[in-house]
């Protein structure tokens, strides 16, 4: 399979830091609990629905928004950008909140606003709604980030002409632990779209 | 009634995560949906749960919500008349 595609930009979010192409874009002290809200304001995201999302969707949305702002991708462009993401904990963080709200049968008030996020692929919907993407999207749950799976899936979308660009990556939230690594596969860019390159970029997460 | 209206405005902002607005900015007659506060269908369901949990009012027909949740004035009037808590 000939690989003419590149990785044009990538974003990491971990330890209360957001980095774009390896450079820290925004950070707050590790003990700050309102990191995502502060990042939203600092990065001029300007999308009030952000505050209705669960932490998993906020994390994915923020990382995608950093890349799309950098790439000058807006809802007006109507680009054919596929979304391919995965994680380990699925929507467990929000599942627990929902479970808490239905645990006591004498006080049974499940929140619809929480319940709608008890699926991990909702994050793809949130990004698609904001950027008006009517494209292919897939979400996978794996024990660990599977480089070869994401690489092969993205390559097949390209070869089959299913997408012009692909936003790929890993967005995981489990209680206080969280991490996001997103990268944009495009026809142009400085980095080759190869398994080795994706691994190298993913591993930068642990040096943030 | 004024205390109930103030309570409702604070509940809306807190429970519906309306970060860009304060209770003081919500007018008694402001439309809550559509061009007003811009609440959506999930917010409507959340308000139905809030009526039940906080005021003991069970809406059996969600379509009733359209008139009840038109504004703070309509909500407070309905709650004042039907509350069991």
TrEMBL record, chain B:
The domain of life for this entry's organism is Bacteria
Domain Carrier, chain residue ranges per copy = 2-83
Q: Which NCBIfam families match?
A: PRK09184.1
What name has this protein been given in UniProt? Acyl carrier protein
The organism's taxonomic lineage, starting at the top? Bacteria, Pseudomonadati, Bacteroidota, Flavobacteriia, Flavobacteriales
């Amino acid at each position: 399979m000939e690989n003419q595609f590149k990785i044009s930009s990538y974003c990491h979010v971990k330890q209360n830091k957001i980095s774009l192409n390896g450079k820290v874009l925004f950070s707050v002290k590790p003990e700050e609990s309102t990191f995502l809200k502060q990042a939203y304001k600092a990065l001029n995201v300007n999308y009030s629905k952000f505050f209705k999302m669960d932490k998993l969707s906020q994390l994915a949305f923020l990382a995608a928004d950093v890349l799309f702002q950098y790439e000058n991708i807006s809802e007006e462009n109507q680009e054919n950008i596929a979304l391919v993401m995965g994680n380990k904990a699925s929507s467990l963080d929000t599942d627990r909140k929902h479970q808490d709200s239905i645990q006591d049968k004498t006080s049974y008030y499940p929140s619809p606003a929480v319940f709608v996020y008890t699926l991990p692929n909702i994050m793809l919907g949130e990004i698609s709604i904001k950027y008006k993407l009517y494209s292919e999207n897939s979400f996978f749950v794996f024990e660990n980030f599977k480089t070869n799976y994401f690489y092969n899936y993205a390559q097949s979308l390209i070869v089959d002409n299913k997408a012009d660009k692909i936003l790929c990556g890993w967005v995981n939230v489990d209680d206080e632990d969280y991490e996001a690594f997103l990268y944009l596969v495009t026809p142009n860019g400085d980095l080759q779209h190869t398994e080795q390159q994706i691994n190298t970029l993913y591993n930068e997460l642990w040096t943030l | 009634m004024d205390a109930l209206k103030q309570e409702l405005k604070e509940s809306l902002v807190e429970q519906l995560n309306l970060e860009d607005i304060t209770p003081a900015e919500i007018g008694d007659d402001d439309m809550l949906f559509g061009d007003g506060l811009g609440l959506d269908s999930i917010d409507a369901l959340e308000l139905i749960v809030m009526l039940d949990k906080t005021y003991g009012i069970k809406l059996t027909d969600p379509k009733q919500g359209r008139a009840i949740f038109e504004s703070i004035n309509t909500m407070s009037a309905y709650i004042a008349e039907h509350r069991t808590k």
